């Protein structure tokens, strides 16, 4: 009888530890822990304690709404169970050692506003399924080993303010449909292997503050319509195959500075902010 009572007590304690989230989300957290060598994390989880005490996990109304584990020595692949967090709003796994492909199951996270997987070693193509995350405001995939083209489906992310894809191995052109991302403030594809002409449609992104296109294989001329980007304060287009070189600008400055032609050289001009 005492043994039975002890078993019941242990069961209730275990159940209470996970009582604040669904079994589906609990399983996803444990799958994440196991697949990324949780015991070796800089700040690890005690799986015997309540989930709401686990580092980097934010819970509201018995739902996981944020996963923030940057700089935490996550290693290995992201599990497919990552798609179980149906109310997740923010996911930040930047500055870790994650490998493999970016899971297409991330497309299940329909409430996601920020997806940050930068500074890892993800390979393969950017999943086209990410184009269904229509609430996404920030997509940061820079400094990985991603290949292939920018998926056309990403042009459906009309709430995006940040699209940072630099320092990968992306090829192909910037989609002409980039104009659809009318709220975009930061666009970076620098340090890739992209080619073709720089689309004039970028000039329709009137909220743009940062435009980083340097270190690719872009050809042709820089569209003069970029003069319409009056909010632009950081501009980099050097180290391409354009018909002429342009000054890289960082700081508060008049747009006309971008169009100064250089003679066989690239300069960087820092202009002090007021």
UniProtKB/TrEMBL annotation:
The keyword Signal applies. The keyword Cytoplasm does not apply. It is found in: Cell envelope; Membrane. Keywords: Leucine-rich repeat, Membrane, Repeat, Signal. GO terms for cellular component: cell envelope; membrane. Its main location: other. It comes from the Bacteria. Residues 1-19 form the signal peptide. It holds the Pfam family LRR_1. This is Two component regulator three Y domain protein. It comes from Wocania arenilitoris.
């Amino acid at each position: 009888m005492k043994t039975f009572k002890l078993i019941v007590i242990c069961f209730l304690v275990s159940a209470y530890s996970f009582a604040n989230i669904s079994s589906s989300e609990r399983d996803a957290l444990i799958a994440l822990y196991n697949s990324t060598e949780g015991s070796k994390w800089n700040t690890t989880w005690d799986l015997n304690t309540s989930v709401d005490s686990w580092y980097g996990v934010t819970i509201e109304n018995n739902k996981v709404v944020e996963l923030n584990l940057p700089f935490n020595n996550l290693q290995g692949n992201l599990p497919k169970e990552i798609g179980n967090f149906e109310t997740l709003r923010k996911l930040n796994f930047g500055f870790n050692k994650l490998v493999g492909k970016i899971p297409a199951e991330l497309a299940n996270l329909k409430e996601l506003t920020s997806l940050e997987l930068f500074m890892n070693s993800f390979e393969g193509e950017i999943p086209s399924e990410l184009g269904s995350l229509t609430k996404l405001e920030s997509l940061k995939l820079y400094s990985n080993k991603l290949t292939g083209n920018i998926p056309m489906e990403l042009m459906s992310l009309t709430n995006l303010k940040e699209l940072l894809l630099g320092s990968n191995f992306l090829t192909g052109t910037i989609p002409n449909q980039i104009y659809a991302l009318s709220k975009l403030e930061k666009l970076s594809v620098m340090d890739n292997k992209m080619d073709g002409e720089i689309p004039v449609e970028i000039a329709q992104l009137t909220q743009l503050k940062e435009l980083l296109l340097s270190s690719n294989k872009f050809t042709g001329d820089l569209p003069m319509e970029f003069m319409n980007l009056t909010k632009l304060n950081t501009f980099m287009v050097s180290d391409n195959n354009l018909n002429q070189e342009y000054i890289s600008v960082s700081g508060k400055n008049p747009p006309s500075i971008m169009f100064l032609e250089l003679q066989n050289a690239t300069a960087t001009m820092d202009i002090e902010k007021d």
